Amino acid sequence: MHVLIFGGGGFLGRRLAKTLIESGGLLQGKITHLSLMDTAFPEEMPQDSRLEAIKSDFSDEKEIREVLQLQPDVIFHLAAIVSGEAEKNFELGMKVNFHASLQLLELCRMLDYSPRIVFASSCAVFGGDVSKVIRDDTSPTPLSSYGTQKAMVELLMNDYSRKGFVDARCLRLPTIAIRPGKPNAATSSFVSSIIREPLYGKNASCPVPSETKVWIQSPNRVIQNFIHAANIDEQILGNDRIFNLPGLTVSIQEMLRSLEQISSPEVTNLISFEPDDFIQSIVLTWPPHFDTQRAINIGFVKDASSEEIIKSFINEEGISS
Amino acid sequence: MHVLIFGGGGFLGRRLAKTLIESGGLLQGKITHLSLMDTAFPEEMPQDSRLEAIKSDFSDEKEIREVLQLQPDVIFHLAAIVSGEAEKNFELGMKVNFHASLQLLELCRMLDYSPRIVFASSCAVFGGDVSKVIRDDTSPTPLSSYGTQKAMVELLMNDYSRKGFVDARCLRLPTIAIRPGKPNAATSSFVSSIIREPLYGKNASCPVPSETKVWIQSPNRVIQNFIHAANIDEQILGNDRIFNLPGLTVSIQEMLRSLEQISSPEVTNLISFEPDDFIQSIVLTWPPHFDTQRAINIGFVKDASSEEIIKSFINEEGISS
User: Fold this and answer.
1) Which of A261, A258, A259 lies closest to A199, judged by CA?
2) Is residue B113 annotated as a catalytic residue, yes or no?
3) Fewer CB in 10 Å around end: N or C, chain B?
4) Dist CA B71 CA B78 (whole Å)
5) CA-based nearest residue in chain B for residue A154
């Protein structure tokens, strides 16, 4: 089978590709061809003869049309302009996050089969009263253009699936923690930085108060959930293809306490609190409390604790304590 | 002030225009110019020197750009491909209901002021378990392309308002009953036909079982609510500009019983039940139970009973009993 990953050059895309290659396939069959598309790829890409890296913009119609001619069985759509950038550059966010996603769906509609699509949506579709528990039927109320664009694409994914044009599954990702590498323009980037940077002996600043609660999921669980989403039998899905992934509710304080217990006070002393109005204007509207019964029932997985998340990051990165 | 009505040639658009002309204006000021845009206008249009009827397609960028040069203070956006047509002609529905609405917002974004927009959305954004009570924070789960397109535009209206590009208010209209004139391609058209046609001595067929409950609002209340929406102070609106209008839950049976009491058994004998799979596949997914606390609190109005709705239709149409 042929698997295609849009956003395959990003951190999650590469890790997903690596996992797929190592496991050999999905429930539907063995992977014979794995195409990754992205605007850029880092040098250290997974090496495998089945893997092809296509350097292209997700909004380039000609390129998308061409790669769809390869008849991918499963498409992972992880391509996006991140939240902070989409808020600052409204037109770019609309172009990539919304219009290019709609274009993908339109090109899929023209195919003579209905490809399965796993779409990386985001819990940023929610915003507002952070004391409220988000249920499976709670309405999206995005307070960012990024969240708005994701919520619109979810609606399209549902309708195109209902019409039989595609077979989509939309996962609302919690904030991913802990991301390796450098900070990015996601407004949630600091949730990773405040753990990662001190572990590397570097300073980090936290732009929100320490009592701020966040809704997080580790990269490992997200990859497991992407693959699970691709494996779910269409028959049991019904018309609603949107899932709030089961994250973990933790305060910044709790994360830093775990970090200190695992490492040392010298590590956590590298963190300073420097309020940032722009980041707070988005992140402090993200509700951290969810009841994700539907996702749990259908087999999506969650992390056990922030301690576990930090420990597995340390292991994966080979950080010596 | 200048008021612009997209879909101004339709039944609701014309009635809104008539009401605005008669009342003279909105809270913001007197109406000096009232532009109606639509693809077609009936001959019997309201006559007034302030009124201008512009024959044009809502998706025609050049025409929309031109009419926006007149700097409308308030825009009523009632232009749409109705539910049944949008379901059968997916591309046309996307073009008019979604893309043309986005185009309007984009053209408004380029203006040097933020026009107020009252957008006619629909309770067809909901679909599925009809026993469920729809609350103000219940997520849209459209089971029609029409509902999907409306839900997407609502999200855009909220985001463009949050960014200060426009000042939008989205009203989720219940099924309008009783519409005068001829049946149209809305899948809910029968809710009006089964009352209207027999009152004119004509046969009518009901495509759903008599125990089917519907969520309705009379044209008079809808017009009142459009005008109220235009009058609400932006300061009290906040970021969520979407309202489930307070409709009335009635079964087809109850409506026909009211009709029989007001008229006679000879009238209701003109109605036959002829199941229609296509109409049922959409209408039977529309939940008829709502808790519209937020709309009530902010001053939107509802009908008292189906009896009252039928009686005022008879009065307005001058039907002799």
Assistant:
1) A259
2) no
3) C
4) 18
5) B152
